[in-house]
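User: Fold this one for me? It's DUF4789 domain-containing protein.
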Amino acid sequence: MSIIFSSEMKAIYLLSVGLIYFCKTVASLEEPNTTLAPVENYKTNPYCFRFTWMGPKYNKDTPYKNLSCDNILKKAKGIPCFHPLVITNNTNVPDTNYMWEEYKDKPSQIACRLVRGEVCARYSYRYNGAIENITYMCAKLNVDNESSTSTSCFKEDRLGREIEVCVCESAAGRTPCNRSTIVLADGAPVAPMMLLLAVVQLLIIKCLQLR
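Assistant: Here's what I get for DUF4789 domain-containing protein.
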């Protein structure tokens, strides 16, 4: 269900990003993740992608194996980051459809299980119009005075820095909806954002280190 933005709407959107898994060492996609409960299955549970694409500045020839989220963010505050850290061999964003086919039988490697009260989110960070990095995650979305939306995008400009947060709700048995595409849900277009009527605030509420 998509939200309808009217001219009278004065809702303030508060996106609380729960950083559930955040560590200082780079986790490889091949490294086993013991946090996955045996009963979890992508066919019966909806998932959201959860990882950070390091951006076009990094590729297979870039020394990245010892980098952490701190290296990528460079002390920038309010920007989420999740392991694993993903690179591509060109300036294209990750092929999330391919990634899901490779890891759907062990989804916790690149995804988080969507639970009630949360949404899937894709957080894009640009500087002077150029993409810097993208983080995919599970998040909480609190909407004041309006019903929550299953597919919406919110933008905010900060002195040349553009932040775009797109949220959606995945369905069990399908590719996580916060994939690398303009359309976030099957057959559902991204809802427009009224920049003058909505304010997006990011709040990091919890960090736990992977062991």
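One thing worth pointing out: The longest helix spans residues 96-103.
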